Amino acid sequence: MLSTIAKRQFSSSASTAYKVAVLGAAGGIGQPLSLLMKLNHKVTDLALYDIRLAPGVAADVSHIPTNSTVTGYTPEDNGLEKTLTGADLVIIPAGVPRKPGMTRDDLFNTNASIVRDLAKAVGDYSPSAAVAIISNPVNSTVPIVAEVLKSKGVYNPKKLFGVTTLDVLRASRFLSQVQGTNPASEPVTVVGGHSGVTIVPLLSQSKHKDLPKDTYDALVHRIQFGGDEVVKAKDGAGSATLSMAQAGARFASSVLNGLAGENDVVEPSFVDSPLFKDEGIEFFSSKVTLGPEGVKTIHGLGELSAAEEEMITTAKETLAKNIAKGQEFVKQNP
Ligand SMILES: NC(=O)c1ccc[n+]([C@@H]2O[C@H](COP(=O)([O-])OP(=O)(O)OC[C@H]3O[C@@H](n4cnc5c(N)ncnc54)[C@H](O)[C@@H]3O)[C@@H](O)[C@H]2O)c1
Ligand SMILES: O=C(O)C[C@H](O)C(=O)O
Fold first, then answer.
1. 33 alpha carbon, distance to own chain's centre
2. Which residues of the chain have pLDDT under 70?
3. What is the per-residue pLDDT for 11?
4. Lower Cβ count inside 10 Å, N or C end of the chain?
5. Which sites are catalytic (predicted)?
6. For the domain that residue 198 is a member of, what is the CATH number?
7. 131, 163, 195 — which closes off a domain?
8. Quick one: pLDDT at residue 15?
9. How far is the CA of 66 from the centre of ligand 2 (A)?
10. Residue nearest ligand 2's atom 6 by CA
């Protein structure tokens, strides 16, 4: 922490020097994500951690000529402590991916304890860092991290994020394919959570409000189940890694831009949200303005079509169960 503070005080680009930690850095997502974070000029210190191979990934990435240090650690020699100490942003893609026929919830039994243990280390060594969770099932792993940080008395709801950016990228891409347009000019807001029916694209707020019903239905289904396309195509070798690395790097970059005090940094994210708290749903993804303290503003959903209202109702039922499952896991397995 001290070294980060000193760096900020004496560096000429004082507010743009950040330490970023990637936990699970040797994996299918972790490696390209680490590469992309090395290319981010706000990152001055990149710390990579994995139970295997992270020093090798760090050595490799460190040859890329941007002005940041890269270190890699495994559990030996207090590697997790060294990775996390002084981190401003911790990105967590550690955990197993799906195989064909599995739901994200099927990963819970393996990934819940991985994420819980990493969250404990975050609570101990980087309690004021922003934390971005990629590990699935995101609808449950984010509540797990919240419960762990609460139990350590360091939970800051403004700094915990479930990364749902891949749904947003897919929505733009798939809509542009249907319309024959440039995805860069097809923004789509996606809200809810990150699995199947909890992924709710708000196409009525896009440029294309009046898609034919069969086109609309197919597009919504593709956005909700886009992850399955990749899992099926990889045929047992994992799920989305490269598109996810791009999505994770975009989200991380937005968090850093927010921390640096840049204006109008808005990304959808699965956060501790007031939107449906009165219905018992503590986390929900919607557009979030990011600022120096993390979450600055959580935006409402805006005007919805009847079909979207219906999807939100369905999403809330599943989300309530996914969130409770994560919270209950930490209660039973502290
Ligand atoms: N949020 C999203 O949109 C999104 C998208 C794609 C994948 N995912 C999820 O991301 C996770 C990782 O996917 P992947 O394809 O990179 O998997 P992977 O198996 O290729 O990599 C996972 C890495 O995590 C490491 N790991 C396992 N336990 C660890 C621990 N305790 N500490 C540190 N590292 C540990 C492994 O060694 C491995 O290198 C999966 O759960 C997957 O479902 C989420
Ligand atoms: O589909 C998966 O299991 C990985 C990820 O959540 C995705 O959306 O690609």
1. 12
2. 1-15
3. 39
4. C
5. 194 (proton acceptor)
6. 3.90.110.10
7. 163
8. 61
9. 30
10. 227
